[in-house]
Amino acid sequence: MELSPDSTILWQWGPVRLNATIVYTWTVMAVLSASSWLATRRLAEGGKTSRRRNLLETLVTFLNDQIRATSRQEPGRFLPFIGTLFLFIAVSNSLEIIPGFHPPTGSISTTAALAICVFVAVPFYGVLQKGVLGYLKHYVKPSVFMAPFEIIGEFSRTLALAVRLYGNIMSGSIIVGILLSIAPLFFPIVMQVLGLLIGLIQAYIFAVLAMVYIASATSVQKREEEKKD
Protein backbone atom coordinates (compact mmCIF):
# COMPACT_ATOMS: atom_id res chain seq x y z
CA MET A 1 0.00 0.00 0.00
CA GLU A 2 1.39 3.38 -1.04
CA LEU A 3 1.27 5.91 1.77
CA SER A 4 1.77 8.91 -0.45
CA PRO A 5 1.24 9.74 -4.15
CA ASP A 6 4.80 11.10 -4.11
CA SER A 7 6.07 7.57 -4.55
CA THR A 8 4.23 7.06 -7.84
CA ILE A 9 6.50 8.29 -10.65
CA LEU A 10 4.53 8.77 -13.87
CA TRP A 11 7.32 10.21 -16.02
CA GLN A 12 11.02 10.82 -15.61
CA TRP A 13 13.68 12.45 -17.70
CA GLY A 14 17.03 12.50 -15.97
CA PRO A 15 16.66 14.24 -12.60
CA VAL A 16 13.24 15.66 -13.58
CA ARG A 17 10.36 13.62 -12.21
CA LEU A 18 6.63 13.91 -12.64
CA ASN A 19 4.92 12.14 -9.76
CA ALA A 20 1.26 11.52 -9.03
CA THR A 21 1.10 14.34 -6.48
CA ILE A 22 1.88 16.94 -9.16
CA VAL A 23 -0.66 15.46 -11.58
CA TYR A 24 -3.39 15.30 -8.94
CA THR A 25 -2.60 18.88 -7.88
CA TRP A 26 -2.88 20.08 -11.47
CA THR A 27 -6.15 18.18 -11.75
CA VAL A 28 -7.59 19.98 -8.73
CA MET A 29 -6.37 23.31 -10.08
CA ALA A 30 -8.00 22.57 -13.45
CA VAL A 31 -11.28 21.58 -11.78
CA LEU A 32 -11.31 24.77 -9.69
CA SER A 33 -10.41 26.98 -12.65
CA ALA A 34 -13.02 25.43 -14.94
CA SER A 35 -15.68 25.50 -12.23
CA SER A 36 -14.94 29.15 -11.45
CA TRP A 37 -15.18 30.13 -15.10
CA LEU A 38 -18.42 28.21 -15.67
CA ALA A 39 -19.97 29.53 -12.47
CA THR A 40 -19.17 33.19 -13.05
CA ARG A 41 -19.16 33.67 -16.83
CA ARG A 42 -22.74 35.02 -16.98
CA LEU A 43 -23.13 36.49 -13.53
CA ALA A 44 -24.04 40.14 -13.33
CA GLU A 45 -24.94 42.39 -10.44
CA GLY A 46 -28.69 42.66 -10.20
CA GLY A 47 -29.22 39.71 -12.53
CA LYS A 48 -31.91 37.15 -12.00
CA THR A 49 -31.49 34.65 -9.19
CA SER A 50 -30.44 31.13 -10.14
CA ARG A 51 -29.26 28.03 -8.32
CA ARG A 52 -25.72 28.72 -9.41
CA ARG A 53 -25.85 32.26 -8.10
CA ASN A 54 -27.46 31.15 -4.82
CA LEU A 55 -24.74 28.54 -4.33
CA LEU A 56 -21.95 31.06 -4.92
CA GLU A 57 -23.51 33.65 -2.64
CA THR A 58 -24.02 31.03 0.07
CA LEU A 59 -20.39 29.94 -0.14
CA VAL A 60 -19.03 33.50 -0.11
CA THR A 61 -21.34 34.49 2.74
CA PHE A 62 -20.26 31.45 4.75
CA LEU A 63 -16.58 32.24 4.27
CA ASN A 64 -17.10 35.92 5.07
CA ASP A 65 -18.99 35.07 8.26
CA GLN A 66 -16.30 32.65 9.41
CA ILE A 67 -13.49 35.12 8.70
CA ARG A 68 -15.36 37.93 10.47
CA ALA A 69 -16.12 35.74 13.50
CA THR A 70 -12.51 34.57 13.75
CA SER A 71 -10.67 37.83 13.15
CA ARG A 72 -13.22 40.43 14.32
CA GLN A 73 -12.25 42.35 11.17
CA GLU A 74 -13.78 42.98 7.79
CA PRO A 75 -13.20 39.87 5.66
CA GLY A 76 -12.61 41.56 2.28
CA ARG A 77 -8.80 41.49 2.26
CA PHE A 78 -8.58 37.96 3.69
CA LEU A 79 -11.28 36.24 1.59
CA PRO A 80 -9.18 35.50 -1.55
CA PHE A 81 -6.42 33.75 0.41
CA ILE A 82 -8.54 31.92 2.99
CA GLY A 83 -11.17 31.02 0.40
CA THR A 84 -8.54 29.59 -1.93
CA LEU A 85 -7.07 27.47 0.86
CA PHE A 86 -10.48 26.14 1.84
CA LEU A 87 -11.61 25.35 -1.72
CA PHE A 88 -8.34 23.71 -2.73
CA ILE A 89 -8.27 21.41 0.29
CA ALA A 90 -12.01 20.68 0.17
CA VAL A 91 -11.98 19.81 -3.54
CA SER A 92 -8.77 17.77 -3.19
CA ASN A 93 -10.30 15.68 -0.42
CA SER A 94 -13.70 15.39 -2.10
CA LEU A 95 -12.28 14.05 -5.37
CA GLU A 96 -11.04 11.01 -3.46
CA ILE A 97 -14.41 9.39 -4.18
CA ILE A 98 -13.29 9.03 -7.82
CA PRO A 99 -11.63 5.62 -8.31
CA GLY A 100 -7.90 5.96 -8.87
CA PHE A 101 -7.66 9.50 -7.56
CA HIS A 102 -5.52 10.17 -4.51
CA PRO A 103 -5.85 13.59 -2.87
CA PRO A 104 -2.65 15.64 -3.14
CA THR A 105 -3.24 16.58 0.50
CA GLY A 106 -2.17 13.01 1.25
CA SER A 107 1.38 14.12 0.42
CA ILE A 108 3.52 15.87 3.00
CA SER A 109 5.02 18.02 0.23
CA THR A 110 1.57 19.47 -0.59
CA THR A 111 0.55 20.10 3.01
CA ALA A 112 3.97 21.63 3.71
CA ALA A 113 3.53 23.97 0.74
CA LEU A 114 0.10 25.03 2.03
CA ALA A 115 1.52 25.59 5.51
CA ILE A 116 4.37 27.68 4.06
CA CYS A 117 1.78 29.82 2.27
CA VAL A 118 0.19 30.50 5.67
CA PHE A 119 3.64 31.14 7.17
CA VAL A 120 4.27 33.83 4.53
CA ALA A 121 0.74 35.25 4.72
CA VAL A 122 0.94 35.96 8.46
CA PRO A 123 3.73 38.59 8.27
CA PHE A 124 2.40 39.83 4.93
CA TYR A 125 -0.98 40.75 6.39
CA GLY A 126 0.65 41.89 9.62
CA VAL A 127 2.94 44.33 7.82
CA LEU A 128 0.10 45.42 5.56
CA GLN A 129 -2.02 46.24 8.60
CA LYS A 130 0.56 47.77 10.94
CA GLY A 131 3.73 48.47 9.00
CA VAL A 132 7.09 46.75 9.39
CA LEU A 133 8.01 48.21 12.78
CA GLY A 134 4.51 47.84 14.14
CA TYR A 135 4.45 44.17 13.21
CA LEU A 136 7.93 43.41 14.55
CA LYS A 137 7.04 44.92 17.92
CA HIS A 138 4.93 41.91 18.88
CA TYR A 139 8.08 39.74 18.86
CA VAL A 140 9.55 41.71 21.77
CA LYS A 141 6.46 42.03 23.95
CA PRO A 142 6.33 41.94 26.91
CA SER A 143 10.12 41.50 26.86
CA VAL A 144 12.84 41.30 24.22
CA PHE A 145 13.75 37.88 25.65
CA MET A 146 10.47 36.55 24.24
CA ALA A 147 11.65 37.05 20.64
CA PRO A 148 13.30 33.59 20.26
CA PHE A 149 10.19 31.88 21.63
CA GLU A 150 7.94 33.86 19.28
CA ILE A 151 10.07 32.85 16.30
CA ILE A 152 10.10 29.20 17.38
CA GLY A 153 6.32 29.41 17.74
CA GLU A 154 6.00 30.66 14.16
CA PHE A 155 7.90 27.66 12.80
CA SER A 156 6.29 25.08 15.11
CA ARG A 157 2.72 26.03 14.21
CA THR A 158 3.65 25.90 10.52
CA LEU A 159 4.96 22.37 11.02
CA ALA A 160 1.83 21.48 12.99
CA LEU A 161 -0.42 22.70 10.17
CA ALA A 162 1.39 20.56 7.60
CA VAL A 163 1.58 17.40 9.71
CA ARG A 164 -2.01 17.64 10.99
CA LEU A 165 -3.57 17.81 7.52
CA TYR A 166 -1.22 15.19 6.08
CA GLY A 167 -1.78 12.77 8.95
CA ASN A 168 -5.56 12.97 8.83
CA ILE A 169 -5.83 12.49 5.07
CA MET A 170 -3.22 9.74 4.91
CA SER A 171 -4.74 7.78 7.81
CA GLY A 172 -8.17 7.95 6.18
CA SER A 173 -6.80 6.50 2.95
CA ILE A 174 -5.06 3.69 4.84
CA ILE A 175 -8.24 2.75 6.73
CA VAL A 176 -10.25 2.63 3.50
CA GLY A 177 -7.59 0.42 1.91
CA ILE A 178 -7.60 -1.99 4.86
CA LEU A 179 -11.40 -2.25 4.92
CA LEU A 180 -11.46 -2.73 1.15
CA SER A 181 -9.27 -5.82 1.54
CA ILE A 182 -11.39 -7.19 4.39
CA ALA A 183 -14.92 -6.36 3.27
CA PRO A 184 -14.86 -5.13 -0.35
CA LEU A 185 -18.53 -4.11 -0.57
CA PHE A 186 -20.19 -2.43 2.41
CA PHE A 187 -17.53 -0.94 4.65
CA PRO A 188 -15.55 0.92 1.94
CA ILE A 189 -18.72 2.77 0.87
CA VAL A 190 -19.40 3.85 4.45
CA MET A 191 -15.77 4.89 4.92
CA GLN A 192 -15.77 6.84 1.66
CA VAL A 193 -18.76 8.85 2.86
CA LEU A 194 -17.12 9.34 6.25
CA GLY A 195 -13.84 10.25 4.56
CA LEU A 196 -15.63 12.86 2.45
CA LEU A 197 -17.07 14.44 5.59
CA ILE A 198 -13.70 14.36 7.37
CA GLY A 199 -12.02 15.89 4.33
CA LEU A 200 -14.40 18.85 4.36
CA ILE A 201 -13.92 19.27 8.11
CA GLN A 202 -10.14 19.24 7.66
CA ALA A 203 -10.42 21.93 4.98
CA TYR A 204 -12.50 24.02 7.37
CA ILE A 205 -10.09 23.52 10.28
CA PHE A 206 -7.04 24.40 8.16
CA ALA A 207 -8.69 27.58 6.88
CA VAL A 208 -9.83 28.61 10.37
CA LEU A 209 -6.38 28.03 11.87
CA ALA A 210 -4.80 30.04 9.06
CA MET A 211 -7.22 32.88 9.81
CA VAL A 212 -6.49 32.65 13.54
CA TYR A 213 -2.76 33.03 12.88
CA ILE A 214 -3.33 35.95 10.52
CA ALA A 215 -5.75 37.58 12.96
CA SER A 216 -3.18 37.35 15.74
CA ALA A 217 -0.76 39.31 13.57
CA THR A 218 -3.25 41.98 12.49
CA SER A 219 -5.41 42.61 15.55
CA VAL A 220 -2.75 43.70 18.07
CA GLN A 221 -2.85 47.31 16.99
CA LYS A 222 -6.61 47.39 17.22
CA ARG A 223 -6.56 46.10 20.80
CA GLU A 224 -3.93 48.68 21.78
CA GLU A 225 -6.03 51.50 20.32
CA GLU A 226 -9.08 50.30 22.26
CA LYS A 227 -7.05 50.35 25.49
CA LYS A 228 -5.94 53.94 24.84
CA ASP A 229 -9.53 55.02 24.29
Features:
mainly alpha, 72% helix, two-stranded antiparallel sheet, 229 residues, single chain
Overview of the structural elements:
- There is one protein chain.
- By secondary structure, this protein is mainly α.
- The protein has one domain.
- The chain is built from 7 helices and 2 strands; from the N terminus they run ββααααααα.
- Strands 1-2 form a two-stranded antiparallel sheet.
- Helix 2 crosses helix 6 and helix 4 packs parallel to helix 6.
Quickly count the domains. 1
Q: Percent of residues in beta strands?
A: under 5%
Q: What separation lies between the terminal Cα atoms?
A: 61 Å
Helical content (DSSP H or I, runs of 4+): over 70%
Order of helices and strands: EEHHHHHHH
Output mean pLDDT.
80
Q: Major beta sheet, specifics?
A: 2 strands, antiparallel
In angstroms, what is the radius of gyration? Answer: 21 Å
Q: In terms of structural class, how would the helical and strand content be classed?
A: mainly alpha
Question: Unreliable segments (pLDDT under 50, ≥5 consecutive)?
Answer: 221-229
| Morphology call | globular
Strand order of the largest sheet: 1-2
How many DSSP H or I helices? 7
Q: Give the tally of β-strands.
A: 2
Summarize the structure.
By secondary structure, this protein is mainly alpha-helical. The chain is 72% helix and 4% strand. The protein contains 7 helices and 2 strands, in the order E-E-H-H-H-H-H-H-H.
Task: Annotate the secondary structure layout.
Blueprint: E1 9-13, E2 16-19, H1 20-40, H2 51-71, H3 79-94, H4 108-136, H5 147-182, H6 186-218, H7 220-228
Antiparallel strand pairs: 1-2
